[in-house]
Amino acid sequence: MRPLTALFILGLFSGTLVAQEGTLAVSGPSPINFAYTIDGAVPAPAVLTASNVGDQTVKLDWITSISGTLAARITPVPATGSIPPFGSSQNIEVYIDPVGLTVGNYTGLVRVVHKKNGGGNGNIINFAVNLAVSERTFVVGDKLVGSIDAVDDTDHAWFTALKGMTLRLEVKPSGGIEKFRISIVDELDAVVKSWLLKPTETLKKQYEMEASGNFLLRVEEVKGLGSYTILTERKLPDRAKPHTYTKAEPKKGETFVEFKIGALAGAVVNANVFPKGGLLLTDIAVSFLDPTGAAVDIDAYKVTSLVAVHLVKVPLTLTGDYILRVDGLTIAGDMVRVPIAPFQPAAGITAVDLDA
Asked: What pLDDT score was predicted for residue 2?
């Protein structure tokens, strides 16, 4: 029996001489999501944590690699590491450099690889990286805050406007600002309105927008540094408000009537078409066109009662003028009564930091 015992002890002892490789584990956000506003602050790094969850008696080496469209813009710090025997976990900070990118969504991949002591790779942990790049925006009604803190400093933010909408601005500079310029710029980079302002002048300005779309409000340094606040307000044109057409009839030679509805993207509209005179419900056809002239599918929002065609909460997804059209008015004296009630998105109520 003694030789067996000795053999058993020798086998147990010899087994402990060969240390097993550890196992790499990496925790952290998955996927790693970054968001960046052009000309704004660079996002803070994401933090991953590498640890050894296997054999602790030997060191565990790891290395990172980057791929994808963001490969040149992702930096892990540190890029490699080694967890010593019985050592603590290690943090890996993942930095993103979005400066210079245009609006859009970008992707990449961070791979953390266990490098075995004897050569080759152990397990691999992947972390997808998503970056959303956007322009700074505000909703008219918001309060804009910012600072002019260098020569030629420029702040800006985009907003959406409806043709005929009056944009009102109340500007409040402070500090050493002596002159500064506020401009409204269209999507083609053309200045549609500009004011050169001094703190000693009246700083309440307004402008009636001559087109619908997205516009840039730009603040530029001219002389002096300091901070500013801009209160924004809107006045919508009548066609963007509830209105009732009591006796709408076609023009000479036509068999239809059209009603223009101004809308900011995100609005909804209710409308009712009541035939008048000798016109019957079965005579008319109701259709809807968006600002591009394309037909809007209104079947899911249309209800026909005994007295009218009702459109209920039709979503208006574009900014501009929609057309409600009623066909079938073929006889002299045919007319319709049409109450229209657009509900526009609420005006802004938040503070937007143009320096953030």
From this structure: 43
Reported as a single tens digit per residue, the pLDDT across 141-170 is 999 999 998 999 999 999 999 999 999 999
Token pair for 324:
């409600």
Strand partners for 286? 326
Asked if residue 12 has pLDDT above 80, the reply is: no
Token pair 């599918």 in the structure block, residue: 297
Q: Which two tokens stand for residue 80?
A: 């490699």
SS3 content of the chain, % helix, strand, coil (to 5): 5, 55, 40
* Token representation of residue 188: 């083609």
Q: Report how far residue 276's alpha carbon sits from residue 279's, in angstroms, rounded to the nearest whole number.
A: 6
Report the DSSP beta bridge partners of residue 183. 194, 218
- pLDDT for 87 equals 83
- What are 324's strand-pairing partners? 259, 288
Mean of the per-residue pLDDT values of the chain: 91
Six token digits for residue 160: 């959406």
Q: Which domains does the chain have, with CATH numbers?
A: 23-134 (2.60.40.10), 143-235 (2.60.120.380), 239-343 (2.60.120.380)
Distance CA 292, CA 290 (A): 5
